[in-house]
DNA sequence: CCGACTTTGTGCATGCGTTCACAAGCGGTA
DNA sequence: TACCGCTTGTGAACGCATGCACAAAGTCGG
């Protein structure tokens, strides 16, 4: 499939055979955590930390130390027993496994409030996810630059996506438009979709979809509120202490 | 703990003892899916559908029919064998289990691009999650109404949250401010936090945190791109067909 | 009233992910 | 070189979630 898009492999570092078998076997849940480890490690590297133990890293990432070691073992044995891990080495190996050695061009569809936020979000370009295309149907928006990129009309999606080698499509449209947009992205050869619309997308097997559903997140929180309130009422009716955990309350807040 | 906040239970429907034991036993994964079922069912109800079978509902929700029935069985037996489920009945029971019979007041901290998007997002108020407070540090923003609500200063967070009975705090600040904001929310008695900042928050045990991490989502997609590209290269180098799944490509796109 | 058909609810087996516990391996030290 | 302490890497046990397959329970037609 990559071969369809001209010189797709220019910047890709091919995986070694041993890595390929490993990559196939990495549990989905572990992949998500590896991304978290990567961020923590990058932060450490920026602060000049060169070595780290599984215990330290696991605490910073908010997970069990044993789980962290198992997760890292999925990508190989790059630690030194009795010492720990070299931060730089770990960073580069996780980046390689996650496919971050290649840039992944991102297209955002639906330039409303959320689309604006995504287009302006600084976190993507710096980490290998440059936003290269924006789409909408509103005539007033077409051609207007948002975050430095002019908005294209949704009807040009196939041509633009192919031209700019878009590999990830982000759907930030209202729910009724989501499936249609999804179909167009798939037609344009996009195989990875991040969906913010509260809709269950139907896609072919060869397309990977990830969903971010704010309402669902809220409702899960709501469930826990209800469960706790109920437990509290039935257990003793007493007031549960609410105080903080001793962490300092000092910081400033800066607008994104 | 609810008893601490005056007349907290005014609109709450207390759970029956049988439901309480059930609620305790519902797997986390099932809770997330129940929220999805609820949305699908609500959409059906709006279109006048009154009854639905597990097969239909599961397809619309994108899950296995058996799994759907098991999920529903966690909240009770409200179907009719040989017929299916009554949409209204199912909606009301899921809402009750998820704690949606009570309104959950939401506070958004960090009124940048994302904060604006959240404050204006129409999906919350309609479904029992009214945004009642906004916070930032930027003097130019304080007092300015966003989505109909004036922005308060972060220093007033405790008073405002208590006054408006905020039960869910949303963190949409830059990473460096997230932990500090989190601590303040916790001090203000907020026990549920939805975190958009790419930071691992440290909280006491009695606080529930859910994380939405765009960079992590992107990197998971990147992993799958890399894995597939690699498989394709090593399997045969051939081009995988990309065509759509026969779904119509007809819709319009409207800006949120 | 009865029998055939449909669909739910669930016991059970399977597979995946997490956790434990410990052997293997490395650096430091005498 | 031989020993000691520390940390990694992983085999194995455990627990949770998923999917299957079927009994239970209801409707509908005659």
Automatic annotation (TrEMBL), chains A, B:
Transmembrane intervals: none
Occurrences of domain CoA-binding (ranges): 99-200
DNA-binding region: 36-75
Segment forming the signal sequence: none
Pfam families (UniProt xref): CoA_binding, Put_DNA-bind_N
Location of the protein in the cell: Cytoplasm
Keyword terms: Cytoplasm, DNA-binding, NAD, Repressor, Transcription, Transcription regulation
Domain of life: Bacteria
Residues annotated for NAD(+) binding in this entry: 110-115
Stored SMART domains: CoA_binding
InterPro entries, alphabetized: CoA-bd (IPR003781), NAD(P)-bd_dom_sf (IPR036291), Rex_actinobacterial-type (IPR058236), Rex_DNA-bd_C_dom (IPR009718), Tscrpt_rep_Rex (IPR022876), WH-like_DNA-bd_sf (IPR036388), WH_DNA-bd_sf (IPR036390)
Region of interest (Disordered), ranges: 1-21
Role description: Modulates transcription in response to changes in cellular NADH/NAD(+) redox state.
Family: Belongs to the transcriptional regulatory Rex family.
Subunit-level organization: Homodimer.
Protein's name in the database: Redox-sensing transcriptional repressor Rex
């Amino acid at each position: 499939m990559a071969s369809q898009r001209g010189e797709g492999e220019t910047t890709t570092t091919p995986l070694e055979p041993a890595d390929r078998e490993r990559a196939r076997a990495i549990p989905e849940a572990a992949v998500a955590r590896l991304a978290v480890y990567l961020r923590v490690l990058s932060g450490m590297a920026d602060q000049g930390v060169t070595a780290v133990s599984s215990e330290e890293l696991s605490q910073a990432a908010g997970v069990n130390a044993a789980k962290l070691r198992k997760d890292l073992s999925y990508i190989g044995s790059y630690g030194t027993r009795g010492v720990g891990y070299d931060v730089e080495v770990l960073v580069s190996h996780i980046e390689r496994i996650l496919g971050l050695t290649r840039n992944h061009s991102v297209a955002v569809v639906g330039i409303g409030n959320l689309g604006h936020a995504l287009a302006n979000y600084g976190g993507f370009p710096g980490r290998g996810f440059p936003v290269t295309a924006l789409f909408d149907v509103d005539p007033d928006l077409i051609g207007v630059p948002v975050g430095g990129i002019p908005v294209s009309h949704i009807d040009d999606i196939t041509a633009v996506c192919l031209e700019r080698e878009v590999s990830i499509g982000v759907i930030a449209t209202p729910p009724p438009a989501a499936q249609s947009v999804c179909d167009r992205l798939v037609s344009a050869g996009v195989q990875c979709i991040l969906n913010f619309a509260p809709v269950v997308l139907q896609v072919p097997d060869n397309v990977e979809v990830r969903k971010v559903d704010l309402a669902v997140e809220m409702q899960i929180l709501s469930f826990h509120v209800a469960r706790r309130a109920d437990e509290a009422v039935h257990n003793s009716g007493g007031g549960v202490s609410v105080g903080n955990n001793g962490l300092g309350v000092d910081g400033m807040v800066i607008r994104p």
